[in-house]
Amino acid sequence: MFWFLRRGFASLIMLWVIVTLVFMSIHFVPGDPVELLLSQDGGSADPATVQMIREDLGLNRPIVEQYVEKLKGLASFDLGRSMVDDSSVSAEIARRLPRTLELIGLAALISLIIGIPAGIYAALHTGRSFDRVASYLAGFAQGIPVFVLGTLLILVFSQMLKLTSAGGFVAFSQAPGKHMLLLLMPSFSIGIGLAAIVFRITRASTLEVLPLDYVRTARAKGLGDRRIVLHHILRNALIPVITIFALQIGSLLGGTVLVEYVFNWPGLSGMLVSGVNARDYPTVTGVILVISALFIGLNFLVDVLYGLTDPRVRK
């Protein structure tokens, strides 16, 4: 129990550090957010109006006082209101978060569907044509940036083949088929890199399991190759795959920033970019806090699972 509480406390400290760094970074970025907000139409900001809005938003108070007020709001799960349109940041995040999670979920599913079967087949046929070609493609997939792959997908499937739109969003309740079609390309763009990692780990883990005694014993008993793979090789080879996969899911959160921009997918990343451009402090802080909380929560869950399965981790 002490180990569990210690890991939970460490996660909260990490989240507090992230909030502090984001708060300080935004406030030290050059440019007055109020002047930027008032000059969006191309006109000049009136000094009296700027001062009035700064007082109304509390930006004229000392930065320490603003920081303490921000922490109090976060403690009560209040992310504040947008400085641009006075909308609730929490409500906007709640509206956009499912879209980003949907993108990440499908990307993770794509990576598993491609990576695990290909990794096992390559290990069972090591040194052959499929193994060499698949290993080469995995290295290429890990190296290509997500925005480059996304642009290539738009060029091929939207511009050349005319199979789908270049981007955009349609609610699932309005048009389920079109929603999934628009979701497929951005998910594939960020999922293919993870698929390459899953392929490499699955292949390496399967090669380690193949020469073990229980696999040879299963073959000596006359069991079929299909049963040996599914019941003996796969179950043991997937242990390190699950470990790496769980840790890599957090990296998909970073990949969505460029992908959502390329495909005009209205998730958290687009909200973050627009908030940074407008110096919208509450929006930027709220989005980064939610993304960080998801990442830290996932790592905390992995740590807990390690501690439950391996007592050595708790020590």
UniProtKB/TrEMBL annotation:
<keyword id="KW-0813">Transport</keyword>
<feature type="domain" description="ABC transmembrane type-1">
    <location>
        <begin position="97"/>
        <end position="306"/>
    </location>
</feature>
<dbReference type="GO" id="GO:0005886">
    <property type="term" value="C:plasma membrane"/>
</dbReference>
<keyword id="KW-0812">Transmembrane</keyword>
<dbReference type="InterPro" id="IPR035906">
    <property type="entry name" value="MetI-like_sf"/>
</dbReference>
<feature type="transmembrane region" description="Helical">
    <location>
        <begin position="136"/>
        <end position="160"/>
    </location>
</feature>
<dbReference type="Pfam" id="PF19300">
    <property type="entry name" value="BPD_transp_1_N"/>
</dbReference>
<protein>
    <submittedName>
        <fullName>ABC transporter permease</fullName>
    </submittedName>
</protein>
<keyword id="KW-1003">Cell membrane</keyword>
<keyword id="KW-0472">Membrane</keyword>
<dbReference type="InterPro" id="IPR000515">
    <property type="entry name" value="MetI-like"/>
</dbReference>
<feature type="transmembrane region" description="Helical">
    <location>
        <begin position="180"/>
        <end position="199"/>
    </location>
</feature>
<comment type="similarity">
    <text>Belongs to the binding-protein-dependent transport system permease family.</text>
</comment>
<feature type="transmembrane region" description="Helical">
    <location>
        <begin position="12"/>
        <end position="29"/>
    </location>
</feature>
<dbReference type="GO" id="GO:0071916">
    <property type="term" value="F:dipeptide transmembrane transporter activity"/>
</dbReference>
<keyword id="KW-1133">Transmembrane helix</keyword>
<dbReference type="Pfam" id="PF00528">
    <property type="entry name" value="BPD_transp_1"/>
</dbReference>
<feature type="transmembrane region" description="Helical">
    <location>
        <begin position="103"/>
        <end position="124"/>
    </location>
</feature>
<feature type="transmembrane region" description="Helical">
    <location>
        <begin position="237"/>
        <end position="263"/>
    </location>
</feature>
<feature type="transmembrane region" description="Helical">
    <location>
        <begin position="283"/>
        <end position="308"/>
    </location>
</feature>
<dbReference type="InterPro" id="IPR045621">
    <property type="entry name" value="BPD_transp_1_N"/>
</dbReference>
